[in-house]
Amino acid sequence: MTQSMSINLPKIIGHRGAAAYAPENTLEGIATAAEMQAPWVELDVKLTKDNIPILFHDETLERTTNGSGAVAETDYADIQNLEAGSWFGESFAGIKIPTLEEALDVILTHNLGLNLEIKPCHGREKDTAEVTLDVLTQIWDDPTNILISSFQHVSLETAVEVAQDWPRGLLIGGQTPDDQPENWIELADYLDVKTLNIGSNILSADFAMDIIDEGYPLIVYTVNDPMDAKRFQQMGVDTIITDAPDIIAENLINTH
Ligand code: G3P
Ligand code: MG
Question: N or C: which end of the chain has fewer CB within 10 A?
């Protein structure tokens, strides 16, 4: 793999699969995104207690499964037995929490691109990046349709150490534009990221312009209202992460 191969970002990425239509971070969610012609999916990865990378968003199991307690304190053998679909809808009853490996298999089968968000349990920022990239780089072979992102600087720093040539994105979130970090240019440079992935609440037109002026592709999350999507596209946003990839695709000014 060479540095000269640049990332081929899509206009739309399905958030946690297609989270408006299927349980987040599941194989069914990935398949739903593919059915809706979403070109890429965004998924969250973290480690079980015994270091198996799984797709999961929260620190704890309660919201999206029939289990309880911290993911970081639960072995995969127990995670594997949990049910992760009923909370979303009875028609999804019986769905399991996938391993990263299982998810990559489905993503590749559907020929999707992937924004893999490293979402470590607290204190596991380095391990999660190491294990995730170890699994990922053994299975994935196209550096133009993958983006490794994280809010955690240690995870991105580790990604630079263990898989420098795999494209990274720096996630920046917040409640309002006042939360824009002053040092984002230095951070992006230090972490050697290819993209800036910015929360919709903090992305002002000025911030967007500054990011574009610095030469970074700009990704915004999570945008489900078509009017907002158009507004962000007019600001120069390259890629929209959405729970409803079908609705955003229908309404964007330019989807190519
Ligand atoms: O990667 C974009 C977005 O997923 C970040 O926030 O909490 O939905 O993982 P969250
Ligand atoms: Mg995420």
Answer: C
